[in-house]
Amino acid sequence: MSLFLCFLLFLVSSVTACDRCVHQTKAAYFSKASALNSGACGYGSLAPGFNRGYLAAGIPTLYKDGAGCGACFQIRCKNKALCSSKGIKVIMTDLNRNNQTDFVLSSRAFMAMANQGGQTEIVAIDIAKVGSSNWSYMSRNYGAVWDSSRVPAGALQFRFVVTAGYDGKWIWAKSVLPADWKPGVVYDSGIQITDIAQEGCSPCDDGTWR
């Protein structure tokens, strides 16, 4: 089992009908998606298709020798600046044998706790040399990968177009790429997108946390 990052979380358990209280716990996430296909519950390759991929491995007291397999838990992050107040619902498909954290979430479930919530989208990225107003657009190669054949020399600055349901807006990266930037290296843009998408459809079921 591959662990990556830990957060303090709240959870509401539906495994035990008499326990609806909010508890404080810790969770990490699987750094390798292949781990989801080898869960102790025996779901195998079917597991990633459950619950939109929102899955979790639980410690022995939650796994209960397999009796906890398929149980649902509602989890949210305590940090309101980084996480959505709605939280997520996960299905237990594996046993977590690491005693440093109560849950290990699928990366899809872990990311779903963020403010963006999979609703706002980055639809355009521009690039320019630091200090220049001559912006060049980048093209989406695939997924979250963007590229450009017109990369200027020196330190680079970026700006993004983010949509939140209807209109888009420009967001400038707070950090820049140094002049000696290298392909394949991860650089922090210094921004956290906190916009919540406006929805034109019927209201969602957003039961309150008590």
TrEMBL record:
Q: Name one GO biological process term.
A: anatomical structure morphogenesis
Q: What is this protein called?
A: Expansin-like EG45 domain-containing protein
Q: Which SUPFAM superfamilies match?
A: Barwin-like endoglucanases, PHL pollen allergen
Gene3D superfamilies named in the record? Expansin, cellulose-binding-like domain
UniProt keywords, alphabetically: Signal
Give the InterPro entries listed for this entry: Expan_Lol_pI, Expansin/allergen_DPBB_dom, Expansin_CBD, Expansin_CBD_sf, RlpA-like_sf
- Superkingdom assignment: Eukaryota
Pfam hit, one: Expansin_C
UniProt lists the family membership as follows: Belongs to the expansin family.
> What are the Expansin-like CBD domain coordinates in residue numbering?
107-189
Signal peptide start-end: 1-17
PANTHER family per UniProt:
EXPANSIN-B3 (PTHR31692), EXPANSIN-LIKE A1-RELATED (PTHR31692:SF4)
Report the GO terms under cellular component. Answer: extracellular region; plant-type cell wall; plasmodesma
Question: Start and end of every Expansin-like EG45 domain?
Answer: 38-130
